[in-house]
Every structure is written in C-alpha cells, then in structure tokens.
TrEMBL record:
Protein name: Ammonium transporter
CC per GO annotation: plasma membrane
Organism expressing this protein natively: Falsiruegeria mediterranea M17
Family: Belongs to the ammonia transporter channel (TC 1.A.11.2) family.
GO molecular function: ammonium channel activity
Spans traversing the lipid bilayer: 6-28, 95-117, 124-145, 165-185, 197-215, 227-247, 259-278, 314-335, 341-363
Membrane-topology descriptor: Multi-pass membrane protein
InterPro entries: Ammonium/urea_transptr, Ammonium_transpt, Ammonium_transpt_CS, NH4_transpt_AmtB-like_dom
Domain (Ammonium transporter AmtB-like) ranges: 7-389
Cited SUPFAM superfamilies: Ammonium transporter (SSF111352)
Gene3D superfamilies: Ammonium transporter AmtB like domains
UniProt entry keywords in alphabetical sequence: Ammonia transport, Membrane, Transmembrane, Transmembrane helix, Transport
Amino acid sequence: MNGADTAWIIVATALVLFMTLPGLALFYGGLVRARNVLSVFMHCFAIACLMSILWLVAGYSIAFGGGTSGYWGGLDKMFLLGITPDTLSGTLPEILFFAFQMTFAIITPALIVGAYVERVGFGFVLTFSGLWMLLCYAPVVHWIWGGGFLADGGIFGETGVKDFAGGIVVHETAGLAALIIAVFLGPRRHRTTPPHSPGFVMIGAAMLWVGWFGFNGGSQLAADGGAAMALTVTHISAATASLTWALWEKIKYGKASMVGLVTGTIAGLASITPASGFVDPVQALVIGAVAGILCQEAVNVVRNLLKIDDTLDVFAVHGVGGIFGTVMIAVFGLGSWAAQLGGLVIVGVFTAVVTVILVKLVALVTPLRVDAETETNGLDLSVHGERAYDISS
C-alpha cells in the first residue's frame, strides 16, 4: 500500500460524492419549476443511497470481480466477500477502490435524472436506476476498466479502448439512456417555464467543477504527476468551454446567459473526462473550445429538430460531450481509431437495447409517468407531501 496514493483517493472519493450530493442536485434542481425542486433533490439523494447498497451487493463484483469472462466479472466479490482492510488493489486498499468506484456508480444513473424531471413516477426512478446500474453500467465498467473485452489485449488488440475517467462508461451510457427515456415519456405539459433558480444552477455547477477534480484526477489512482495533469487539463477545458458557450450565445441571441455559461462548464468537463489522462493543456484548450459550441448546437438539434424533451439536456451535454472527448483521443493520435469508434458503437448499441428493455419491463410494474393533475400541481406536494418554499411561514 502507498500512503500518499491512499490519502489522495480518499479525498477524491469524497469529491466525486460531492458531485452528486449536493452538486448535481442543485444544478438540476435550479433548472426546474419551483414546485418540482424537492422531487429532483429526492431523486438524486435516493439514487445515491440505493446505488451504494446495490454496488455492495453485486455491482462491484460484476464490474471488478475475478471472473475470467471478458463480459462480466462474476459474483465472487458480492458483499465484498473475502476483502479485508489489508486486501490491495494496486497500491490502494481494495475497500477504498470499491468506495471510489461506488461514487461513479452513484453519479451515472443520477445524471439520467435530468431527462425525466417534472413528469416521472418516483417508483420508476428507483426501480429503473437500480436495474440499469447492475445490468448496463456495471458490465460496461468491466468491459473497459475491469480488464474486459474492450480493454487492452481485448478485441481491438494490444491497445484497447482508452477512456480515462468515463467518457464512454459514464457519459455516453447516461446520455443515451436519458434520450431514450425522454422519448418514451413524451414532452412535459409545461415546457416553456423558465428555471426557477439560476442561482442554484450556478452553485451546483461550481460544486460539480470542484468535484470533477476528484472524478478525473482520482482516476489516475495515484498521487503523482499524472493526477496533477488530469486535474489541470480538466480545469482548462471547463474554463474554455464556459467562455465559448457564452460567446456563441452572444453571437446567436445577442445575450450571454449565466445558465448558458455554467452549462458550458459542464460540457467542457464531460468532454475532457475520457481524455484527461492522455492530453496536454493545449489539447485540453482545443477540446473545451469546441465543446462549448458543439454541445450547444446539440441542444438545438435535440430540442428543435428531433422535438425530444430531454428536459435538462442530458444527452446534448453529457452524451455528446463524452462521445466527442472519446473521439478526440484518436484525433490527437493518443488512441486507435478502431478502438475508440468501435467502443462507442458497441457500448452505444448495448446501452440502447438494455435501456429500452428495462423501460418497458419496469413500466409494467410501476407507472412511468405521473398523471396530468400531478404534473400540473408539481411533484413536490403531490408525490412527496412537501414544498420547497412556504412563503406563508
């Protein structure tokens, strides 16, 4: 065990959990109507709790178990059987590696929340999220990070798919699942209502930015120069994408919005995620500069051309950003075109198939969408019996 590596990953684990709670919750919560903000908080918090338990029960074993199959890790590490404080994973205690990866398993289904807020049934959220994490996310983790068939030495040869911190594993899977659920749900009844609290959005984005240092820097799994470089290029991409998003808004609409600025931040962060362990600061500048415009145009395509109500633009920002960053690894000559594109296609098809099947199956058990009256009155009071704001008290 290396003490410095262990100390850094303990910090990184806390930072990644901070991304979901409270960062993502505030970012998403500020973008919805006031009568739905608590439901967004509820989704994020409950998903964090449920994914933690399911990751212990079977998720970690499916992703990182000792099975010899290139497709899943087996069940030998269910409930962390056989793992003690002295068991090592590289230079880290394996229990810490479990916890670090658990925070990724939390935020990935939590990202999908943004696609279905303001109209989804709470039972569907928990049932779908749990099954999706076990049957879609965990196997993909094994394929790329757990020594599976897409990793080095797999079907693409000695150099497999390069995805440092989750451009494919996290952002492509969550983005595609979000888009598919949005199609099944149909549009909201109140699509034109503006964000109720842009201040929440900014605070949440700021927390995500800080937490992303643990997300990308921690993925080095060591306290060394590689972690420092990953952290630095993450920051440069986020800063650049924020400015290019705002500039593009100014050119197109005459005004640069604060919500747009910080959405650009998230686009830059998602785009640099797969490449953060491989690129230098100048390459990160390029990725961020393009991401701010590319993801904004993707928002317009999904909303206006495809007419899909992906409420908080999960696919356009996270999905497109993660895919773009994955491709840029090959563009810069840091990975093979066959592996990068092949990995995107294989994981994309798998994610789409599993998501469609799960949506249809879970909808047989618990309603996918709330009724019209509940949607109009807001999920906070109708579903959870609480209000975020009581101005009479």
